[in-house]
Structures are given as structure tokens and as C-alpha cells.
Amino acid sequence: MPTSLHRPTATGPDSLAPRAARRPCLEGDGTRSRTPGPQQGRVHQSGSGWSPVYVEENLGVMSVGFLLSSPDDAVIWRGPKKNGLIKQFLRDVDWGEVDYLIVDTPPGTSDEHLSVVQYLSATHVDGAVIITTPQEVALQDVRKEINFCHKVKLPIIGVVENMSGFICPKCKKESQIFPPTTGGAEKMCQNLNVSLLGKVPLDPRIGECCDKGQSFLSEAPESPATSSYRDIIQRIQEYCDQHHLPEEKII
Ligand SMILES: [Zn+2]
């Protein structure tokens, strides 16, 4: 099982696995919902548990947001209640047979991260994909996340540098929105001896697709961000293929 420690990312779970892998996504962020597209009230309960919301044939999603009555509702669950919900998402959702389980977690190293790692400790978690942006203030948090992974013995699949430059759609000129003043994720990965899975440039259409619940990969196949996503996905799949036990695979 790979789990992911996320910094805010505009891509969401949809970006993993262009192959026909069945990949559910569990939004492990107990404080807000960032899952676009699927709307509230679409979670059905059956004898075998909650059914995930299928946004594509091979992508099922479960999120706190689905359980709220209005998209503007805030979730302010804390402590035991939040952990209870994470447990419920892992235990009571009828995921069916899956190739990957991706747990999308909030930035930082909080309760959610610890809970997810603890609750999944009996399974084989492939590892964490850590998302950062190039600037030092983001990297500082990510260094802590890397430390956290070491502490809880969660393997690190690698780091993705998001918002890594911006290519102007009009003149194709590249500029740095968040200058990597300390060398960005690349330097950090070298220093800490973790893999850099890739860099994803900003493309305004990523946010647009997220808002509409569309797959950026199919909407903007020619974008440099798309080729970058595809490379990253391939590296994650290769890592999981090499490291996972025959039985399970969880992202
Ligand atoms: Zn321009």
C-alpha cells in the first residue's frame, strides 16, 4: 500500500495510473475535502459497507466531503472522532479488489499521518509519495515529513516537486513562480538521499480540471505537466512492482 504525504497539489488522485489499474483513493484529510468532481450524498451504504464513489470505471473515491450535506460545511472533527473516521474509511468501505490504494493526506505530520500508518501497519504499505513546491518554506515542512517517515519506518517512494515553473500558454516562456532559492526538491533529495520522482510545471488547466472533476491527463495530453505526471506515475508503478509483496499493494 503506498500512502502519500501530501502538500497541496492540484492534481489529486486521478493522476496515478493511466493503466487500467483499479485505484481507489481515500481522502485521509479529516479537516477538509479537496476531492473535486464527485458531489455530496453519493455514498451508498450496503451490507458490505460504504460504497466508494466511482468517478471513472477504475477510480473509486471516498472522502469526508461526500458525507457532508453541503459543500461549504466545515469539518472540525478532532482527535478520536477524526481517527475513528479514518479507521472507518479503511475498514468499512467496500473497496472491492484493487491494485492501488492511495491515501491522500494533509500537509505536515499530524494525527492523520500517524493514524493511517498505525492502522495500516499490519498490511504492507509500499511507501509514501511526498509532494512539495520548490521554495524553501515548503521544503522545511517536507524535511520534517521525511523525518517522520523514517521514524515510523514508512518507506519513501520519492518526492514530487509541484508548481515547478510556469510555462506561459501564450508565449511559451518559462518563469519561476516559487523560485527554488535553496536548490528546490532536487538539492533536498540529494542531501537526504531520497528519490526525486519528477517536477510538475504549473498549468492553469490543472486547477480548471480539478474544479470540473475532469482528468487533466485526458483534457491536456500535450501539456508538459502531463508528460511529467506520466513519468512520475511510471516511476511509482516501477517502485511498487519491485517492492510489493505478491498479495497487496497500497499507495
Ligand atoms: Zn507569456
UniProtKB/TrEMBL annotation:
GO terms for cellular component: cytosol. Residues 33-49 have a biased composition (Polar residues). Keywords: 4Fe-4S, ATP-binding, Iron, Iron-sulfur, Metal-binding, Nucleotide-binding. One of its GO terms (molecular function) is ATP-dependent FeS chaperone activity. GO terms for biological process: iron-sulfur cluster assembly. InterPro entries: Mrp-like_CS, Mrp/NBP35_ATP-bd, P-loop_NTPase, YlxH/NBP35. Transmembrane segments: none annotated. The keyword Iron applies. Pfam families: ParA. Residues 1-49 are annotated as: Disordered. The keyword Metal-binding applies. It comes from the Eukaryota. Coiled coil: none annotated. This is Cytosolic Fe-S cluster assembly factor NUBP1. It comes from Amazona aestiva. The lineage of its organism: Eukaryota, Metazoa, Chordata, Craniata, Vertebrata.
